[in-house]
Amino acid sequence: MKPMGPIPADFGVRDGALLIGGRTATALVRDAGETPLFVYDFAMIERRIARFRAAFPSIDLHYALKANPFAGLVHRIAPLVDGIDVASMGEARTAIGAGMAAYCLSFAGPGKRDAELEFAIAHGVTINLESVGEAQRALAIAARLGLRPRLAVRVNPDFELRGSGMRMGGGAKPFGIDAERVPELVRSLASEDVEFRGFHIFAGSQSLDPDAIIEAQAAMVALAARLAEQVGVAPSRLNLGGGFGIPYFADDVPLDVERIGAALEAQYRARPAVLANTGFCLELGRWLVGEAGVYLTRVVDRKESGGQTFLIVDGGLHHQLAASGNFGTVVRRNYPLAVAHRFGAEPDEVVTVCGCLCTPLDRLGDQVALPRAEAGDLIAIFLAGAYGASASPSAFLGHGPAPEMLVGTP
Ligand SMILES: *Cc1c(COP(=O)(O)O)cnc(C)c1O
């Protein structure tokens, strides 16, 4: 038997059945008409946003859309956050379509094409510049359009976020502009007709270490102050990135966000004079939406092989790649999962849950202890709210994408 990660405490149970947003998995699947299915409980996301607001009263909250771009969900998040961070023109369209003012969008990501820069400039989206070459292209496009672009500089910091699952800054990186090259670029921007929107620094993702995050944020504030001093330009905004993690695996401990909030608020109050008029923001993805999602899939077959029991389900890594261990992890470990109609019941047996794809990579639960499940039963795979549907190869093997559904909304 191998351990599973923790099931978020927000999910209820009625007569032994898993409840998502107060409804049973069976009822949700009946409404959707098919399995597999992604369900997102918006009430959980609202509670996360409220918790952020309480812990970070002086810091703006942006949603990093790539964590979950499902239109229904973005539509509900947009009025509750101060901005949305996008990483493509498609994501910018989704955010604008969800009612977010284009002025409140920022556009990060290496390799923005000319058409994307033009779209951002025409709509007044802030471009987080990832290179000197991108700055030159943006300026040329703005001049051609006769518009004043909103430009921020993404800084590749000279440090990294210790212990994060995915490193996004520090050392040689495709993201951002090395800190020592930033002053020259900002000085050259100051001589152009641009609205300078400040600095963007993103050091890493999926961190569960509050001390490492506090340390990295303090270093970001110090770096931004140093750069602003060097160029003599006060940044209107300092975007401190995302990266708050959620517990996926056995022994992961939930992040003490209140402690991070207290430290960042203290940093903000004591910020250097050059940042006196600088607004701070965080752009969070995973921590806001990750725990709110459940992937529901139905057992198609139950079989024995080599003395082990396999449950074969109608879903797989083509929808929930991360749960198979093939998205950003080195060692495969088990996400939490449950038999939906026997939620919380004592396990009867050890089984391996495999997806329906014809590849040995498609394992959703490896030797996990579960109540007995038969063909036709629903399996719930938790932590499917971030980097799930949109981060999986849904065209692989031709089963097509899974429907997505929002619950917990009035
Ligand atoms: C992905 C990303 C985020 C969000 O990261 P999370 O770990 O989901 O919070 C924030 N900012 C940028 C620039 C990103 O690329």
From TrEMBL:
Protein name: Putative diaminopimelate decarboxylase
Top-rank taxon: Bacteria
Catalytic residues (positions): 358 (proton donor)
Homology family: Belongs to the Orn/Lys/Arg decarboxylase class-II family.
Matching InterPro entries: Ala_racemase/Decarboxylase_C, DCO2ase_PEP1, De-COase2_C, De-COase2_CS, De-COase2_N, Orn/DAP/Arg_de-COase, Orn_de-COase, PLP-binding_barrel
Organism lineage string: Bacteria, Pseudomonadati, Pseudomonadota, Alphaproteobacteria, Sphingomonadales
Orn/DAP/Arg decarboxylase 2 N-terminal domain span: 44-289
Residues annotated with N6-(pyridoxal phosphate)lysine modification: 66
Gene Ontology biological process terms, A to Z: lysine biosynthetic process via diaminopimelate; polyamine biosynthetic process
Stretches assigned to the Orn/DAP/Arg decarboxylase 2 C-terminal domain: 38-385
Organism: Sphingomonas changbaiensis NBRC 104936
Alphabetical keyword list: Pyridoxal phosphate
Entries under PROSITE patterns matching the protein: ODR_DC_2_2
Cofactor(s) named in the record: pyridoxal 5'-phosphate
Example GO molecular function: diaminopimelate decarboxylase activity
